[in-house]
Amino acid sequence: MKPILVARLFDVAARLPLRLLHLLGAVLGWLMYLLDGKYAARLRENLAHEWQGRPDAEFRKVLNANVREMGKSICELPWIWRRPLDEVLGQVQACHGMEYVEAAQRRGKGIIFLTPHLGCFEIVSLYMAVRMPLTIMYRTPKLAWLDQVMRSGRLRGQTSLARADISGVRAMFKALKRGEAIGLLPDQVPGNGEGEWAPFFGRPAYTMTLVGRLAESSGAPVLLSYGERLPRGAGYVLHFTPLEFSPDIAVARQLNAALENIIRACPAQYLWSYNRYKVPAGVQPPGGEQEKTG
Fold it and tell me: 16, 53, 227, 249: most buried by Cβ count inside 10 Å?
């Protein structure tokens, strides 16, 4: 598919009201769940493991909501990426923890924003990039035709993109040295040599170590962030929470524990279908039980 055609299709979809896109997304979510057995099985497995010991009715309620929310996360992308930036940011109805962002700015050492696959993480970077220079780690999508529209949607405000390779890591360190902000997806599975095994909802997950290196070398404060999607297309609420690492505990363990806390606050909007427990190529499995994928 040609990038120009993709952009035009996204522009057409972006003209629709956010509420309608979310309604369509809920339908899409159920279609994906019913038609893709592997996707549905992984979603149920990951969510059920976290939901052990709680009533089945609660599990079913969160599962059903998650199916809808995952469809919404796809259908809202044209609106987030192609609508005028002021209209997009106008849908931010509240921002909890902004005082932590302001305190971090006053320190002058840059800020490390960690935004997991929770809610609408795209709107968090757009919201911050109109307030400060922001370099975000970027991994080229598997669907090549999506790359150009994704880049143009993210490169707004004072945003810069850093590739998920050694050149991008250098760009992150340089941005912090200038006192600027950076953004990463902390629950994305890193490559061989870039992570270590740490518990995530009771199971070993290969977890990035880059966060610890960035924080230690720069002294930059770390903030967890996510954009909670409101019902019926009513907009978004942003959340910011500080994360301070103890020197006595492995950073990867502390990072995953902090992620668990914010995910439990909004479990229906987490990407439970993501293969968080895979074993990257070349990495020694912790116990031989994880799926071996590259």
Answer: 227
